[in-house]
């Protein structure tokens, strides 16, 4: 029995396919991995993005990231599968070392702490200091508005 190691593969699916067809390709890849003894740790669909340069006359691709644990002797079969799959434009498989996993975990914790700090800063309510004279129009004195209805203007 071979030793299992943690690998990650990022592959680009032809973005000219319909969404259902892209999901079918992703499902086919994950099924193939599981059939060859892989335990999928993480699957992340990054979505459609423009390619830096055309690949097989395609300008857009659907990026997918998958991290999995697999026996080392099955890796060559997985690589061959990615090469033969016609809807996968490119792929890159690397081994995840313990140092890299620790770095990513620390980065995630750091990012969540910064998000928490931003969230608390956003929830603080700052009341602006506004002068009432700037908002309300000036009101005339009420005494000036009283109308004298006396009809006798005679002096006694």
Q: What proportion of the residues is helical, as a percent range?
A: 25-40%
CATH fold-level assignment of the domain at 4-101: Alpha-Beta Plaits
Query: What is the general shape?
Result: globular
Give the count of helical stretches: 5
* Radius of gyration over all CA atoms, rounded: 34 Å
- Low-confidence spans: pLDDT under 50, at least 5 residues? none
What's the CATH first level of the domain at 4-101? Alpha Beta
Provide a short characterization of the protein structure.
This protein is of the alpha+beta class and 156 residues long. It contains five helices and four strands, in the order βαββαβααα. It has a four-stranded antiparallel sheet, covered by helices on one side.
Give the secondary structure arrangement, pairings included.
Blueprint lengths: L3 E11 L4 H17 L3 E17 L2 E14 L3 H10 L3 E8 L2 H26 L8 H4 L6 H4 L11
Give an account of the 3D structure:
The chain is an alpha+beta fold and 156 residues long. Helices cover 39% and strands 32% of the residues. It has helices at 19-35, 75-84, 98-123, 132-135, 142-145, and strands at residues 4-14, 39-55, 58-71, 88-95. A four-stranded antiparallel β-sheet has the order 2-3-1-4, with helices on one face. The termini are far apart.
């Amino acid at each position: 029995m071979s030793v299992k190691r943690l690998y990650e593969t990022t592959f680009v699916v032809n973005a000219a396919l319909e969404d259902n067809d892209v999901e079918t390709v992703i499902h086919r890849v994950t099924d193939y991995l599981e059939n060859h003894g892989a335990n999928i740790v993480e699957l992340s669909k990054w979505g459609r993005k423009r390619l830096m340069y055309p690949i097989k006359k395609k300008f857009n691709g659907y990026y997918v990231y998958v991290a999995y644990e697999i026996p080392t002797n099955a890796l060559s079969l997985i690589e061959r599968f990615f090469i033969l799959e016609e809807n996968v434009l490119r792929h890159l498989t690397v081994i995840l070392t313990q140092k890299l996993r620790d770095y990513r975990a620390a980065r995630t914790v750091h990012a969540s702490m910064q998000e928490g700090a931003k969230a608390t800063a956003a929830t603080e309510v700052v009341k602006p200091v506004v002068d009432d004279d700037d908002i309300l129009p000036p009101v005339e004195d009420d005494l000036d508005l009283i109308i004298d209805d006396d009809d006798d203007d005679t002096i006694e």
